[in-house]
């Protein structure tokens, strides 16, 4: 009996001896507990999110690649995607964002078709406590608390790259006449690519933009507007600067139908570096394309997960980019991912 009593006291004593050793809030060091902890940790970081994605539309090769990159990244990370194709219409995007708010999604990814007119709906998302992540294009809104971050290219720099390449290529040529196919009126890439290109040309009086009109980032419209440029100024055009490759490719068709040689009679500059541009350059019909990388879906998902896990996110995250010329095209074409 005495022995039993001593053993009993010892058992109680060991817990006490363990003292703070195994109190509830101390991390247990056994494997099972570590696994449990990591499971718990795993559950927190890989929590399934519902992400609403309001995309501009499906107007270009670039857009198609960007949509795929974003959709794959969201689903590969195990999250649920609610996707809306805005068909390049602001009203469709506003409707989509309101629908995401009503469905109480965890985050909204938004690529605004134009820079203005979204303040009210972004305030509604903020009031609903839903973080908005700007993708590809930004908005011209004073109150930057309406979005977490803007992940996308520096379009002004893309315009500068195009201008600097042209000056390098034709710098000493007198009286260079340029026609410009602008992107969607009011969109960040159209505004900024024009700004960057003109900033460079302003230092060189031998370059002049004689015609500039929107082709809305599409091949069809790019061809149509280039046909009009050729009718009015055909033999007086030395260079085409197109704000994206799709419009440049449409314009190339118009130039050939007019009877001129693209990339020889008229220098062709595009932006995006899509596969179609590499094919045109490899065929000797386009001179250069400035890269605008659409494949940032995984980067965007990482930013969303980090933010929702409580991490600090920079207000602006730029995408790294290059530019490619005709002589590089044939070799690089097989490596292009979009
Ligand atoms: C640029 C993107 C532009 C592309 C076009 O990031 O917003 O929109 O340059 C696309 O091809 O239509």
Automatic annotation (TrEMBL):
Residues 17-43 are annotated as: Disordered. GO terms for cellular component: cell envelope. Keywords: Signal. Residues 51-309 form the Periplasmic binding protein domain. It is found in: Cell envelope. One of its GO terms (molecular function) is carbohydrate binding. InterPro entries: Peripla_BP_I, SBP_2_dom. SUPFAM superfamilies: Periplasmic binding protein-like I. Residues 25-42 have a biased composition (Acidic residues). The keyword Signal applies. Belongs to the bacterial solute-binding protein 2 family. This is ABC transporter substrate-binding protein. It comes from Halalkalibacter suaedae.
